[in-house]
Amino acid sequence: MENRVVVLANGRFPENDIPLGYLNSADKIICCDGAVSSLVNYGKEPWAIVGDMDSLPDELRKKYSDRLFPDDGQQTNDLTKSVFFCIKNGISDVIILGATGFREDHTLGNISLLGDYAEVIDIKMVTDYGIFIPLITSSSVSSWKGQLVSIFSISSLARISSTGLKYPLEDMQFLNWWMGTLNESTGDNFEISFDVGPVIIFLKF
């Protein structure tokens, strides 16, 4: 069984017990450079630090000089650089933490990137409120009765159907992001089928 790997982004540091549980049980924590100070203040150390290093204090740069992986490319953000670092190092299953909060533009960008990451790696984003799961193909999603569910289509061309949701979707085209929000699971799983992906599912805790 592969060790649990967490990528910690430089958004709001987790406070909820569920994301903190992932952080505390991680075998490896890969930090975007701006998140290192928060992780160290929490009492954990990074296994690797990835990014352009512009947000890393000098004392931490010296302390962790043996685990710095600079990448000053301007075409991707530090979260994407960290995910690509995982892929290059043979890591195939990742939990992203700290990718929301503070700036809404960063939050939206990070969530939308899940669809790209899911093409090459098993990945989830866990926040203080729930879990974002990207789907590349039609899938069954584990849930529980009464769990609040929202569905976001990256492509407006997708036709989406469902079973196991309170408000069924029948070959529905999402022309705006709000259109798949505020649904509810009716059992211990639900099915989402679509012809054009990716689709991103949000499951509220």
Task: Describe the model.
- Helix content is about 25%, strand content about 30%.
- The chain has helices at about 15-25, 35-40, 60-65, 80-90, 105-115, and strands at about 5-10, 30, 50, 70, 95, 120-125, 130-135, 140, 150-155, 160-165, 185, 190-195, 200-205.
- A ten-stranded mixed β-sheet has the order 4-3-2-1-5-6-7-13-9-11. A three-stranded antiparallel β-sheet has the order 8-12-10, with no helix packed on it.
- Helix 5 (about 105-115) links the parallel strand 5 (about 95) and strand 6.
- The longest helix is centred in the middle third of the chain and has 14 residues, at about 105-115.
- The radius of gyration is 18 Å and the shape is elongated.
Strand order of the largest sheet: 4-3-2-1-5-6-7-13-9-11
Largest sheet: 10 strands, mixed
Q: How far apart, in Å, are the first and last alpha carbons?
A: 26 Å
Looking at the structure, the CATH topology of the largest domain is Rossmann fold
Residue stretches low in confidence (pLDDT < 50, at least 5 long) are none
The number of distinct β-strands equals 13
Q: Which second-level CATH architecture of the largest domain applies? A: 3-Layer(aba) Sandwich
* Helix segment tally: 5
Name the helix and strand elements from N-terminus to C-terminus, one letter apiece.
EHEHEHEHEHEEEEEEEE
State the CATH superfamily name of the largest domain. Thiamin pyrophosphokinase, catalytic domain
Helix content: 10-25%
**The CATH top-level class label of the largest domain:** Alpha Beta
Mean pLDDT across every amino acid position? 94
Radius of gyration: 18 Å
Q: What does the oligomeric state look like here?
A: single chain
Gross geometry: elongated
Count of the domains = 2
Structural class: alpha/beta
* Strand residue content: 25-35%
